[in-house]
Amino acid sequence: MLFYVLRRTGAALATLAAASVVIFVFIHLIPGDPIYVLLGDEATPEQVEALRTRLGLDRSIVTQYFYWVGNVLQGDLGTSIFFQDPVTLIIRDGAETSILLACVTMVWIVLLGVPVGVLAATRHGTWIDQGLSGIAMLLASIPTFWVGLYLILIFAANLGWLPSSGYPSIFEEGGLSNLRYLLLPSLTLAAPNAALILRLTRASMLDVAKEDYVRTARSKGIRPQRVVIRHILRNALLAVVSAFGFTFAALISEAVVTETVFALPGIGRLVVQSILRRDYPVIQGVILVIVCLYLIINLLVDISYRYLDPRVELE
Amino acid sequence: MTRSLRPFFDLFATRPLAMLGLVYLVVIIVAALGANVLVHYPPEQIEPINRLSPPSWEHWFGTDHFGRDTFSRVIYGSRLALLIGVGVVSFALATGVPIGILSALYPRLGRVLMRMVDVMMAFPSLLMALGLIVILGQSVANAILAIGIVYLTTTARITYGVSLRLREETYVEAANSMGASTFWIIRKHVLPNMISPLLVQASFVFAFAQLGAASLDFLGLGAPPEVPSWGNMLAESRIYITRAPWLLFYPGLMIVLTAFSLNLVGDALRDRMDPRFREMLGNRGR
Amino acid sequence: MLTVRNLVVSGGKGASRVDIVSDVSFEIERRKVLGLVGESGSGKSITSLAVMGLLPHPQLWVRGGSIELDGADITEEPPYLRVERGHGGVSMIFQEPMTSLNPVVPIGDQIVEAVRVHDGSTGITARNRAQELLEMVRIPDARLQLTAYPHELSGGMRQRVMIAIALACRPQVLIADEPTTALDVTVQMQVLSLIRELCDTFDMGVLFITHDLGVVSELADSVSVMYGGKIVENGPVERLFNVPLHPYTSGLMNCVPDPSAGHRRFQTIPGQAPKPGEITKGCRFAPRCRHAQAVCTTDTPAKVVDGPLHSAQCHFPIARGAS
User: Fold this and answer.
1) Per the database record, which ranges form the ABC transmembrane type-1 domain (chain B) (predicted)?
2) Domains of chain C
3) Which of A29, A31, B105, B246 has the smallest set of CB atoms within 10 Å of its CB?
4) What angle (nearest 5°) sits at the alpha carbon of residue C210, between those of residues C204 and C215?
C-alpha cells in the first residue's frame, strides 16, 4: 500500500513538474507587456526599465523559470502586478469562497446524483427512468451561467428570498447564515455535474445488476432492497467514486463562470480577471494551485478506490 | 459497421426523443443555410426607437438594447454555432485520432504521448481554453482552436483505448505476423471499427463545444463582440435581465436545445454500439 | 418432493413469443440426484432458473405448468418470498464460481447473509454457523478464510464457498448448474463427490445440470435428457445407459470419451441444436437424426416406455421396449 502511494505520488509530482513548465511557457506566450499594463502608455523608458529589473523580467526565460520554481518551493508565489500584494495572500482571500462553494456543490451532487440514479436504475424501463434520464441529459446540456442568471432573476430579483450576488465571509457578521449567499451558486454549479453522476450511477447499477453474483444474492432469499443496496449499489459506487476526479475538474471550469455570474470573490473569478489584467504572477500562481489540487484529489480518489476494491493489488 | 442508412433509421424509430433531436438538428442546419431568406431584418439593423421591446408580431423574439431584432440574430447565430461545432469536431478528430492510433501501434511513442495528454488533462478545460485565447488573440477561429485543443485530449484517449483493444484482437495480430504494413492494418482493421465510437464521441464533442463556446463568449473572450453568436447575445443582454428577461431566453434556449439534441443522438448511437467500447465513452468530457 | 409438471417457459411477447422450455416434467426425491443432460441451448439452465424463481423478468416467464415443493406451489415465487411464506428452500450453485461471488464482500459475510435469513440467527452465532458450513465443504482454516475475499481463493475453493452459501439456505433441493465445467479435472472429482455426500448428510435432493453424460453416470440416480426445450428421454441411470431409446441419447453417449477404447475418436452428432421456436412441428431432433423418416418432421412422437420408469419421445426408438 505504502509503495503504491509513493509510486502514485511520484507520478503526480512528475505531472506537476511538467504542468509547471507548461504554465510558465504559456504565460510568457501571452502577447502584451505587463509593464505597460501597469504603468500605462505614457511611462518613460527609464521607468519601464527600472520596473522590468525590479520584477526580474529582464532575465532569460529559463532563469526566470528556475527563479520562479525556487520561490514557489519556499512558499512564495510572487507578487501581483495589479494588487502589489503577495499572490499567496490573494489566493488565500479567495480560497474560503471557492472551497465552501466546492464543498456545498459536492454535497448537492452526491445527495441528488446518487439516490436519483439509484431510483432510475431500479425503475429501469419505466417512464420514471426515462423521465429522470431525460431530465439529467437536459441538465447536462444547459450552460451554467444561463441557469444562474434565471435563478437570480426568480429567487433574488423577483421573489427576494435570496441574495443575488457577493459573499461575505462566514467569519464576519452574519456567521454561518452567510452560507445562503452560496445557495444559488452551488445549485447552479451542481446541476450539470449531479446530472452526470446520476447517469453514471444509473448506468453502472444496470451493468452490475447483470452480474452473476447478483443472481447468487437473490438466490439466497434476501430481500430485493438489500440486494440493491448491499450488492448492486456497493459495486456500482466503485465507478462513481473513480468519476469524482474528473467531476472535480469539471467543477473548477464551471466555477470560473459561476463565480463570475454571482460576483463571488473566489479563485475562479480571480483567474478570469487576472487574465484580462495580464497579471502574470497571479495567473501562474492560481493555475499552479488548481493543477496541484486536481492532482491531489485524483491521488486521493485512486487510493480510496484501491481501498474500496479488494481485487486491486496493494503491493 | 453501418454500410447502409437503414439500421440508423431503425435505431431512431425506437427512440422518439432522439428522433426529435435529429429533427431539431436538421431544422438548425436549414435555418443556418437559409438565414438570409428566413429573416425580415438584417441582424445588425439598429432601431433605436424600438429598444428592448418585448416579443410582438413584428419582432417575434423582441429586440435588444440597440433595437436589433432578436429573432434575426438567433437565426444568424445558428450559423456560428454550426461553424464552431464542425470546426471543433474536425480539429479534435484530425489531431486526436492520429495521436491515439499511433500511440496504440507504437507503445514507446504511446507512453510519451499519453503522458502528455495526462498533463494537458490536469488543466481545467475552460481555463486552458481561456489561456489559449489570450495567447492567440480573440477571434472565432481561435475560439475553435482553443476548444478543439481541449477535446483533442479526450478524443486521443478514446481512440487510444479503442485501437489498443483492436490491436490485441487476434485478427489484427494475424495480419501483423503475415507481414502486413502498419498502414494497411490501420486502413483495413482499425479505422473501420473506429467509425462508430468516433461518431458517438463527435456528437458529444459537438454538444460540449456549444457550451464551451457560450462560456467563452460570456466571459468576453469568445467570438468578437460584434459577431451575433448566442453566447454573445447572452453576455450583452445580461444586465437587462430584469427589464427584458426574454432577451436572454431565446439564445439560451437555442444553446440548450442544440446541446440536448446532440447528446440525445450521441446517447442513442452509443447504446447501439459494440459493448466492448461502450464503457470508454462515458458522457464525461466537459 | 419437488414436482415440476408440464413447465412452459416463454420469451418475447405477442407474435414474437417463443417457448424456450416446453412441457417439461420431472420429480426430485430426497437423497436422490437427478441429472438433467443436454447441449448448450437445450433449455436446461432456463429450467433451473424457473425452478429457483429467478427467471429474468420480463424477458422470460412461466407460461404454463407448475412447480411444487412438498405440496406448496412455488411457481414464479422468488426466493425471498419463499422465505417469507415459509415454503421450502431451493438453492443453486452456478457454473462460474469466478463471477458468482460478490468481489468486494468477504466470503464470511456472504455466507452469514444467507444464514441470517434462513436461521434467523445473528452476530457470533451466525458467524459460527458460517464457519461450520465452510468446514463441511472442506475448506481448510475455515475460521481464517471467513475474512478472505473471493479473488484470494482458487476456483475449486470458490465453488465450495458457493456450496456453503447454498447449504446455509437449508435447502430441500440443491440445483447444481454445470458446477464443475469451469474447474480443473482433479478438482472436478472432489467437488462431485462432495455434492454426492452432502446430498445424504443434508437429506436433500439434487438437480444436477450438465452436458456431460460421463459426469451423470458417476453421480446421478436418474437422468432426464433435454433437447430443444423438451425432455426426450428419462429413466434410471443404468437402464438409460444400457438401453438408450432415443437416438439423441445414444448420440450423446457416443460423444463420451471411453478410456478403455484408447485413442478412438468419438463420434459427434452432426449439425446444431435448434434455436427456440425454429422447429414447431414433429420431432425437434429430426433434422439431425440418422433414423429420421418423413413422419418425424410432421407428427409429434408418442411416448415409448421401457419398464415403469424409463421412457422416451420417439417414432423410431433404438431399442423398442414394451409399449
Assistant:
1) 78-266
2) 1-89+169-257 (3.40.50.300), 108-168 (no CATH)
3) A31
4) 80
